[in-house]
Amino acid sequence: MPVILVGPSGKNYSKLSELHGKTVGVVRTSKYVEQFDTDNAIQKYPVNDYVTMAKMLAMRRLDAGVGSSMGLFYGAYMAGVKPEDIGVPLVLGSNDFILFVSKKTAKPETTRALREALDKLSASGEIKQIMSKYSKSFSLPQR
Predict the structure, then answer these.
(1) How far apart, in whole angstroms, are the C-alpha atoms of residue 15 and residue 32?
(2) Which of 50, 81, 95, 116 has the fewest CB atoms found within 10 Å of its own CB?
């Protein structure tokens, strides 16, 4: 899944170094891509979720936000943020999608069934269709 960085509308970044000294929203405890995670010249501001991040971007309370394209776009959709309220995304890299399951309540057969279902959805391409349903108003720049 693409990891993107996006500013409020009118703030389009073309490289990571443009964010030195700026405040960038991050979902608490998340890791994105190494060049961003280890860049100490960027002030990282922890937020609870992508909905909060999208609202803060639209209100211009952050210089940028970083996250998975799906997380940021769906968070913006859920927050009522329109595509024109945020800038053009800068793709920083990609990261694996992770599904978390509670260690307390997960049963081996449930975990196995989830893994099989995800593998099947990925192999058929259906997972991309499902994801695009939730981010169809937003898009990544085409190269």
Answers:
(1) 16
(2) 116
Angle at 80 between CA 54 and CA 98, to 5 degrees: 50
Residue 50 burial (10 A CB sphere; 0-12, 13-18, 19+): buried
SS3 86: strand
Backbone angles phi, psi at 26, to 5 degrees: -135, 145
Question: Is the confidence at residue 83, as pLDDT, over 50?
Answer: yes
50/28 Cα distance (integer angstroms) = 10
Structure tokens at 21: 């000294």
Using only C-alpha atoms, the chain has a radius of gyration, in whole angstroms, of 16
What is the distance of C-alpha 129 from the center of its chain?
17
**What average pLDDT is seen over the chain?**
88
90-94, strands of its sheet edge to edge: 43-47, 23-27, 64-68, 2-6, 90-94
What's the CA gap between 134 and 126, in Å, rounded? 13
Asked whether residue 142 carries a pLDDT value surpassing 60, the answer given is no
